[in-house]
Write a structure and sequence with these properties.
By secondary structure, the protein is of the alpha+beta class. This is Peptidase M10 metallopeptidase domain-containing protein. One of its GO terms (molecular function) is metallopeptidase activity.
């Protein structure tokens, strides 16, 4: 009962959380703009403010609770700071009436630099200097990633079917990419409502309360309050567990959680793997080259012209007498495929997919490169066409918010809630065929946590590679 009552208080924050979780008699009432409580005490970990509320008849102001939990002064009024109309639309599991679009929103839009501070726990594997450096490098890597795919400083826009949706104020906004570390004392003085605090191996009351109510053991959290649909700049925390005792794992978790700050969805790219915990707990079976990186060789964000993409089971360390990381054991390939491709039944092979030319979002030329030990490489080229029949929610970072439909003729269609994205390109799945000499092999290219190639050799015999 106590946990349920605390949940009501936490819900009053209209908080949205994205977590990386390891598998391993107070009462609150919400009524319009008034919350009453019989909460006896709310204690914050050391260095955090301690405040108690004991009078059950006292009007409870969520703004004060925010001050307790974030330890950042806030003079904004209740109506502005806490829109209780969004109470059950903040990404929480509820009665089925929630909207989960908001939890993947980009936290910061606009050209202004975002200030953040770093707090490090006594049990953290890294010190303050090392943590700051890791976070700074992580921001740089994400910035390079977005540059690679031409998404930086690119205004958010609707997909082609809703090309004329715009922000209500008519401004064009892009994703914020500039972040600057300041002291936590300096950040406390900020009244912008866009504070970002990194808690590396250190907790606070909000994190503890969320973990107590929502998860048992977490590796990391990206936690913010209800989305600000006016400024599009939101305060929140990035937290990592003090139980992480491997620097490479910590870097991976930090990259993952910062990805959520940028609005990157789970399973959009290697570091955003929804099964990240399974990956980290089985890290001894994986190549260290796949730790602390946004993209792995076999899991790129999307097809890029001139790029070679490795096709193999991703990153497992070789067993005795097995192939090296990134290579495929020939004996695991279907016999008919080896025969058609002229492959040996022993040894190892490397298979790569190269993008020769992209002809818009629908067509592209691909080359499948097969390299066998002590043998000449074989190149199979083909033209592929996108086979997507239904539009899907983009894996690109974006914002789900209230927009204006400038072409609407009916008033009720003028203002709508829709998702606008930085980049809405859909290039996969695709169908086509690869040619090798006089032979032609139908094929399908898709994404399933990395590139997957399916080759048909007749008689309903398929070779699936990439997973």
């Amino acid at each position: 009962m106590k946990k349920l009552n605390l949940l009501f208080i936490l819900l009053s924050l209209s908080t949205t959380a994205t977590e990386t979780v390891s598998p391993s008699s107070s009462t609150s009432y919400v009524s319009d703009l008034k919350i009453t409580t019989t909460l006896e005490a709310l204690e914050v970990v050391k260095e955090e403010r301690v405040e108690s509320i004991t009078n059950p008849n006292t009007l409870f102001n969520p703004t004060n609770l925010r001050n307790i939990l974030l330890d950042i002064p806030d003079t904004t009024n209740l109506r502005r700071n806490f829109d209780l109309g969004t109470l059950f639309r903040s990404g929480w599991s509820g009665n089925g009436g929630d909207s989960h679009h908001l939890q993947d929103n980009i936290w910061y839009l606009g050209e202004k630099t975002v200030s953040y501070c770093v707090k490090v726990g006594a049990d953290s594997i890294v010190n303050k200097y090392e943590a700051s450096k890791m976070i700074r490098e992580s921001f740089t890597e994400w910035k390079s990633f977005f540059n690679k795919y031409s998404m930086l400083e690119k205004p958010l826009k609707a997909n082609r079917r809703r090309a004329n949706l715009a922000f209500p104020d008519g401004l064009k906004r892009s994703m914020t990419s500039n972040f600057k570390e300041v002291s936590c004392n300096e950040l406390k003085k900020s009244k912008k409502g866009e504070e970002l605090v990194f808690l590396i191996g250190k907790s606070n009351a909000l994190i503890d309360l969320y973990k107590d109510l929502a998860t048992e053991n977490a590796y990391g959290l990206a936690l913010r309050k209800g989305y600000n649909h006016t400024t599009y700049r939101n305060s929140g925390f990035v937290w990592t567990s003090p139980e992480i005792k491997d620097v490479e794992v910590l870097k991976h978790v930090v990259l993952h959680e910062i990805g959520h700050v940028f609005g990157m969805k789970h399973d959009s790219v290697h570091v955003m793997d929804e099964d990240l915990v399974d990956f980290l707990e089985a890290k001894r079976k994986h190549s260290k080259a796949n730790l602390g990186v946004i993209e792995s060789k076999s899991w790129k964000y999307r097809l890029v012209e001139g790029q070679n993409n490795l096709l193999s089971k991703k990153g497992k360390k070789p067993r005795r007498r097995a192939c090296s990381v990134g290579l495929i054991k020939n004996s695991s390939i279907p016999k008919i495929a080896r025969k058609k491709l002229g492959m040996k039944s022993y040894g190892c092979s490397k298979l790569e997919l190269k993008v020769d030319e992209i002809l818009g979002a629908k067509k592209f030329h691909l080359t499948l490169i097969l390299n066998q030990a002590a043998a000449r490489s074989k190149n199979m080229s083909g033209l592929f066409k996108s086979s997507r029949t239904k539009p899907r929610d983009s894996m690109s970072p974006g914002v789900f918010t209230k927009l204006t439909n400038v072409d609407a003729t009916r008033p009720r269609r003028k203002n709508v809630h829709r998702r606008i994205v930085v980049d809405g390109l859909f290039d996969l799945p695709a169908r086509g065929s690869f040619k090798l000499g006089n032979s032609e092999f139908p094929a399908r290219i898709s994404y399933d946590k990395g590139l997957v190639v399916e080759l048909n050799f007749g008689s309903n015999k398929w070779w699936v590679v990439g997973q």
